[in-house]
Amino acid sequence: MAAAVCLGGVAVAMGQPQPASENVDLAMYSRIRDEGFNRSHVMEYGSALFDDIGPRLTGSPAMKKANEWTRQQLTAMGCANAHLESWGEFGMGWTQKGASLEMMKPGPAVFLAQATPWSPSLGKAVTAEVVRVPSLKTQKDLDEWKGKLAGKVILYGDAPKINPDPKPLLEHYDVAKLAGLGQYPLDGDMSEQGVLQSTDMSFWRGLFGDLAFKEKVAKFFAAEKAVAVLTPGGSGGVIEDDTLGTFGWYVYRADHKQAIPEMVIANEAFGRMSRLLAAKVPVTVKAEIETEFSGDHEQGYNTIAEIPGSDPALKDQVVMVGGHLDSWIAGTGATDNGAGTIVAMEAMRILTSLGVKPRRTIRIGLWSGEEQGIFGSSGYVSKHFAEFKFSKDPKDADVPEFLQTMAAAPVMKPEAAQLSGYFNMDNGTGKLLGIYAEGNAGIGSIFQQWMAPLKDLGMTTVSLRNTGSTDHVPFQMAGLPGFQFIQDPRDYETRTHHTNQDVYERLSPSDLKQASVIEAIFLYNTAMRDAMLPRPELPMAGEAKPLEGLFLDATKDGKKGAKK
Amino acid sequence: MAAAVCLGGVAVAMGQPQPASENVDLAMYSRIRDEGFNRSHVMEYGSALFDDIGPRLTGSPAMKKANEWTRQQLTAMGCANAHLESWGEFGMGWTQKGASLEMMKPGPAVFLAQATPWSPSLGKAVTAEVVRVPSLKTQKDLDEWKGKLAGKVILYGDAPKINPDPKPLLEHYDVAKLAGLGQYPLDGDMSEQGVLQSTDMSFWRGLFGDLAFKEKVAKFFAAEKAVAVLTPGGSGGVIEDDTLGTFGWYVYRADHKQAIPEMVIANEAFGRMSRLLAAKVPVTVKAEIETEFSGDHEQGYNTIAEIPGSDPALKDQVVMVGGHLDSWIAGTGATDNGAGTIVAMEAMRILTSLGVKPRRTIRIGLWSGEEQGIFGSSGYVSKHFAEFKFSKDPKDADVPEFLQTMAAAPVMKPEAAQLSGYFNMDNGTGKLLGIYAEGNAGIGSIFQQWMAPLKDLGMTTVSLRNTGSTDHVPFQMAGLPGFQFIQDPRDYETRTHHTNQDVYERLSPSDLKQASVIEAIFLYNTAMRDAMLPRPELPMAGEAKPLEGLFLDATKDGKKGAKK
């Protein structure tokens, strides 16, 4: 709080008078809707990016192509100043060239399998016996497997249980769910989903705390001359390929490079081989894992472009929109977060094709490194807006920095005073049903007025709750108005998130058109209104201190009767 | 009808008095339920058959293993006379040894793909350019592609459209649906689903009528020296592998052997490559299709075993239970029709382990060749019970015989007089909710009485409607009481039927236990009651003839005023 008072620009933004009525331009609403629904290019952007460039793992050659392609496209549609901006150094580039898994004995079967990200290459197909090794947790566990793994393919981990009743694939938020989201949570629990920054580090310590041992297991398997490791992940034609399945979170760093080739395989394949081995039936597989490393310490880049502001007094002020351009690799990252990327591009295209002259500058940021630690957007925020101060608790050595508790309020940079707001979409392909206002009570009425003419598009709900896990978070951490839209969930959590099913066919063209129109309108409104958007309180405002002298019979040092 | 009167044995069965009240043994119901629910082996049968033996394509070495394994298991559980019985000559044996498809250009991708049944081998991996060829329908279509296909992989057929809203995977029949099934259809439409035998041949002629041209297309591709063909089938991690996707229904016959290697691939992979080629992006893939042919003109076998009858007057009479042991190959045939197989085996095991002494003989028939034409069960019926007379309309030359219209009533054989009934289960893993009585009105009250004590298991509904597409049909065609149970649909039609998702994990253990208990009870009741089950009318009773002389003013030759 103290910090906010000191910062002229920020204090101005917080203190700017906010009119009770928004002066929205309904003619512009009509033009944006017409362009976005009747002359959309969002699915063409999608096909070129997902089908042609394909998956975009941070640091990979395909990521580089995607950066360059987005820069070109943004220039082609009429944006100014389209460029790539480094957010810092990343680890190794990596590409899956090919992967397959076939059972040879007791009988032939074709299994669903892909390389885990940053898996070393196994080269050409290798045929080997399979051995089942349950999760190893201690040095003693490792010792028991010494001398037993040479030349084997390891079926590693706990066998997943699959309920024969599948979850419904498709979910839509209904009126009751949205009404609930629109209610301020009087119990004080503001988090709707996956809020990253937390004072309770136990979850993250649990997730990252055994990295060293995980790496030790991989090195042990390699030292024992095992051929490869197969881990289960996903069922029903879905396999999940994020680094939660690898031997450590930091496998993209050369100093943590995974020691043994690994594939993630369908739970049904894992189950079949597990049951056979449990019944003492020998299992042999033919495994192919072809991967390629392409460099180390490469810079990671965001793609940035603008529609310049036209009001001499406001043109240095900025409203931003974005999504992350990077993805995992089993699919093509169409919904995570290709959808957010092409919707933001299409919103910019709608505005440029209408020839709008916004008062403030409208800027798109397409981030990378999101999947490994929100690197692109937090690097951008650090460089432009605020310096973060994290706690550096030794217990959190393995926890990525952006997940750590802040030790002090961020130190704001002058550019922070110019940012009106940031809008993000990263919950799949579902249409926009509202927006998470992230505890920024001042903004609710503004957004409600913007949304009133969008009711027929299903855009109805302002929730004061927080949502997390993506690129608006660094903005919020810096006390800047960063917002994620409320999206219809569809099959994001049940099917596409971080899986081989995250492909073009999972996109809903009509929902993506709707989202593009709404993003364009939000950008336009933010760029045109007289005042900047109201800001939230800076982080580190702290918790309420207990009142003192409240209980007449309380002792000063807490010892009963000490006063006597 | 006339035929029925002539056949002593059949007439006796049809004419046997049927008491109004069934004399069921509730103590035996309890014992069967206890054995079936508390000491079930149905899932162990499942794992051994699906995980170890794997898919069981008719004519394949795995099919032979499955025949032998079922014979051994039926003997081991205490059945008598377990043996394999030929149903006639089949075509070529075939095994998929391995299959994979990877995109190389414009970027790497791992696609979901498997060989289509009886595809020739491509041998080791071949890398080639992809060319898109839409469905060819005429010689002119073929001519247009001459000289353009050498060395190419062909993406063949119409690009499937995928709705981003997936169908619900799981379906359960509710009370209203079952109540509807239980109502006699006063509009005369007796068919609930897929009734094969029909006087309207247009559907089948449509399906099979262009076989010759389909084969011509494959031969054209081969003559043009194309490398392989990729056809779309299935979405969302599912690929479908029956011969509806191959170049002709009869690819298992040496004289119709497919001329070119083929894989069925996920619709999403087909879509991605189609969109790229439409955008003039060259596509290169690496394809591996390793298949093996293992013989021709081999006999097809059913596995048969019995619990001998103990009543000297009735022991030559038989009640049968079954399912088909063969399957397609992308999965392991766990639900189609592994479920029916292991439930029938478990029903027999329950009865043998309880040491029952049935009055009539209880016989299990595990059929093969079902997927190619219900060959096993219709061969069995032809050999033992009735000779069929089909129309042999030249227009139906390509339509399999069992689908053709009957030209005359079947000629019954003496053994037909001894068959009381046949029970079949072949609609997936879902529990039994009732039974289709196939228009046999005499049997409704009997089954209702048997089912009354099974209401708590969900077994409630007798439907007089017909159901089709599986092994009870030949019994019905011969005028014998052959029944298929009503099953809870679950994810059979949405996910597992003829797909790579038809695996052990898709089985519902609790539903399979329920089905085993109910089959055992139905077998026991049929074997123990005084009379055989009432029979339906023989086929070919014909339709009602119009009454004559009904309209006073009608002329004899239909010419108005001719009478004057």
UniProtKB/TrEMBL annotation, chains A, B:
Write the record's keywords in alphabetical order, separated by commas: Carboxypeptidase, Endoplasmic reticulum, Glycoprotein, Golgi apparatus, Hydrolase, Lysosome, Metal-binding, Metalloprotease, Protease, Secreted, Signal, Zinc, Zymogen
Which locations, inside or outside the cell, does it occupy? Answer: Endoplasmic reticulum; Golgi apparatus; Lysosome; Secreted
GO molecular function terms noted in the UniProt entry:
carboxypeptidase activity; metal ion binding; metallodipeptidase activity
A single BP term in Gene Ontology: proteolysis
**This protein's GO CC annotations:** extracellular region; lysosome
Q: Which InterPro entries match?
A: CPQ (IPR039866), Peptidase_M28 (IPR007484)
Domain (Peptidase M28): give its ranges.
Answer: 302-515
Q: Summarize subunit and interaction data from the UniProt record for this chain.
A: Homodimer. The monomeric form is inactive while the homodimer is active.
Database matches in PANTHER family? CARBOXYPEPTIDASE Q, PROTEASE FAMILY M28 PLASMA GLUTAMATE CARBOXYPEPTIDASE-RELATED
> By what name is this protein known?
Carboxypeptidase Q
What lineage is on file?
Bacteria, Pseudomonadati, Acidobacteriota, Terriglobia, Terriglobales
